[in-house]
Design a protein that fits this description.
alpha+beta; five-stranded mixed β-sheet; two-stranded antiparallel sheet; globular
């Protein structure tokens, strides 16, 4: 594709919608094959036994409660086992992610850097993708949760630390050549109840992320959890 014809991420939602409504003459068979392979690997990873890894990750570093994070890292074996319906919900979310990234590519957008390992201060994470040069984290949510992304409300209501997770991916990708837009990241989100899509864009916050991560690393290796922050 010529540079003059490259899509911009701002049209992503409309382009996916137009693809679904108007169809296309042909879907790239190589892209279809890769999609099939990723779905197969996903099912294998979700249905086979594997080591239950614990520790800090970019996906949990943004937890607003240090005490909760300490217990998650140090006493995960004491947590209540996940129910089958919860595990199915996670699997469904993974399938939605693969579908959305496939639709992004099929609608003419560049999708690169999928599930690449990133690192800050020795803590690793796996970014979902880079779409049109922008770091993207793919989420699925119920209608209520979707509205927080649609209305750009995470700055004031982010109990799972999604915003810092995205910021971490953007920070860790500053030297990545596929990330051509170093100034922002975005959530690509689907309302899994109604099928609505949105793109929630966040400006990159140039915080001392290495210091943030070093603090979290030091906190979780202490013998006792932090004091309760909420009463």
């Amino acid at each position: 594709m010529d540079d003059c014809n490259l899509k911009k991420i701002e049209t992503l939602i409309d382009d996916i919608g137009n693809l679904l409504l108007n169809k296309t003459d042909e879907v790239d068979p190589v892209a279809v094959q890769h999609f099939q392979e990723r779905i197969g690997q996903l099912m294998i990873s979700r249905l086979t036994k594997s080591e239950n890894k614990t520790g800090l990750r970019m996906s949990n570093i943004g937890s607003p409660c240090d005490r909760k994070l300490w217990y998650e890292v140090n006493q995960k074996e004491d947590a209540e086992p996940l129910r089958a319906d919860t595990l199915l919900k996670f699997l469904y979310g993974d399938l939605i992610e693969e579908m959305l990234l496939f639709l992004a590519e099929a609608s003419g957008h560049s999708v690169e850097g999928r599930q690449e390992t990133l690192e800050i201060a020795g803590v690793e994470g796996h970014r979902d993708a880079v779409i049109d040069g922008v770091t993207v984290d793919v989420k699925s949510a119920n209608t209520y949760g979707f509205m927080k992304f649609r209305d750009h409300k995470l700055d004031g209501d982010d109990p799972f630390g999604y915003r810092d997770q995205l910021q971490s991916y953007v920070h860790a990708g500053q030297t990545d050549p596929v990330v051509t837009d170093k100034t922002r990241g975005a959530f690509l989100v689907m309302d899994k109840q109604l099928g609505h899509l949105c793109l929630d864009v966040h400006e990159y916050r140039k915080l001392p992320w290495e210091q943030v991560y070093e603090y979290k690393k030091g906190m979780v290796v202490k013998e006792e959890p932090p004091v309760r922050a909420y009463h």
